[in-house]
């Protein structure tokens, strides 16, 4: 699989991921509030991309009270804007970003059987897509590159 990292790239999970996410959010001038931490924890508790509804339910269960879906949506949007979470567009769902400390146009591989998503980063490929768009006069914000199919563990 192509790897084009020319920097010290780390994909993280668990506690180190939460630390990196907090660092990325606060470095952008935003606060890592208790509610934001709860949303991030809920997001990482799923083993597949989670809908905003699922995240709201998980936060509500963890807090023992019904939290407002709107505030969860706002936090998810903030996370996506700040590179702390990713949105898998074709699944209408969110994932914690395993590399909140560096920016890539992540390429998602979404399994149609189990619903899990992995991702790869290939900056050369995504740069070509951006350049192709720019060549037409288009101003690309973000390439959305998702591959549907079946993961290595599904038959
Ligand atoms: Zn990287
Ligand atoms: Zn990535
Ligand atoms: Zn699968």
UniProtKB/TrEMBL annotation:
Q: How is the cofactor bound?
A: Binds 1 zinc ion per subunit. Binds 1 Mn(2+) or Fe(2+) ion per subunit.
One GO BP annotation is:
negative regulation of DNA-templated transcription
InterPro entries from the xrefs? Answer: FUR (IPR002481), Fur_C (IPR043135), WH-like_DNA-bd_sf (IPR036388), WH_DNA-bd_sf (IPR036390)
Keywords from the named record: DNA-binding, Iron, Metal-binding, Repressor, Transcription, Transcription regulation, Zinc
Family membership: Belongs to the Fur family.
Tell me the residue numbers annotated for binding Fe cation.
105
List the lineage, top down: Bacteria, Pseudomonadati, Pseudomonadota, Alphaproteobacteria, Sphingomonadales
* Protein name per Swiss-Prot or TrEMBL: Transcriptional repressor
Q: Which Pfam families match?
A: FUR
Q: Which coenzymes or cofactors are required?
A: Zn(2+); Mn(2+); Fe(2+)
Binding residue positions for Zn(2+): 111, 114, 151, 154
The coiled-coil regions, if any, are: none
Instruction: State the organism named in the record.
Output: Sandarakinorhabdus glacialis
